[in-house]
Each structure stands twice: as structure tokens, then as C-alpha cells.
Design brief:
135 residues, alpha+beta, 7 strands, 23% helix, elongated
């Protein structure tokens, strides 16, 4: 499947008293990964919302193997699990500068019509982009 990689540093305000990245921040890290994954595909999440499609997270499972620390440069790999229909599934891996695997996760999001608040199929423009890269 299609993967994208981004890098970012753990900021001081994202840490706990032990200087470890607070576990609650990981959901935001994964969101950064998903948004950049879409951007790499040529799709703006902002424009997706403007055209009436929302993507709420309906499941998020995270496995913390080792802590990320203040000022660590992290590499986040975001991978599409399978071709979306009404749901889209991603896997995540976070590595530190020593290429140690720190965290794995998976998330499922649902395509929701913003007016009706009901599930809807993945937008055609997303499926077309995915077909272009031969998923």
C-alpha cells in the first residue's frame, strides 16, 4: 500500500515530567501523518471538508514500545492498509534518530457526509488518485 514519511521534533510542551512525549499527543502525531499522506496524494483535507466530507476517527489502537523524549527527531511512517470504501484504515510507525521503533498504531476513520452526519462512500477523486498510483 501507499506510505508517506514525515519528520518532526518532540516539543517541550508535549512532554511530561519525565521529559517523555505525553501519550495523549500521539493521536495528534498520527493526524499529522494522515494529513500529509493525503497531501502527498494531491488531496487537501481542508478541501475535502469544504466539499462536505468529514473523516472522524472511529478506532485508534496504539502500542508504546519505547518513549520518545523532548527534542527527539521522530520519523513517522503512515501507510494505507487497504483501498477505502466507507472506512479508511492506516498503520503508523514512529522511529527515533537511532532508527529504533518507538510506537506502532492503527486507526480507522469513517467517511461522513457533513450535512446528514451519515456514513458515505469514499469520494471518487480519492479513489481515482489511489488508482493512479496502483494501490
Amino acid at each position: 500500500m501507499i506510505s508517506n514519511i514525515i519528520q518532526f521534533r518532540v516539543r517541550y510542551g508535549e512532554t511530561d515530567q519525565m521529559s517523555f512525549a505525553y501519550h495523549g499527543n500521539y493521536a495528534q502525531y498520527f493526524e499529522m501523518g494522515r494529513i500529509e499522506w493525503l497531501r502527498k496524494l494531491g488531496i487537501s483535507y481542508k478541501k475535502m471538508e469544504e466539499t462536505g466530507i468529514m473523516l472522524p476517527v472511529i478506532s485508534l489502537n496504539t502500542n508504546y514500545k519505547k518513549p520518545a523524549k523532548y527534542d527527539d527527531l521522530l520519523t513517522l511512517k503512515t501507510t494505507l492498509v487497504n483501498k477505502p470504501l466507507v472506512k479508511i484504515k492506516f498503520e503508523f510507525e514512529i522511529y527515533n534518530e537511532s532508527n529504533e521503533l518507538l510506537t506502532t498504531a492503527n486507526a480507522t476513520l469513517a467517511f461522513i457526509n457533513s450535512k446528514t452526519k451519515k456514513p458515505t462512500r469514499a469520494p471518487e477523486y480519492l479513489l481515482k488518485k489511489l488508482n493512479e498510483v496502483k494501490v
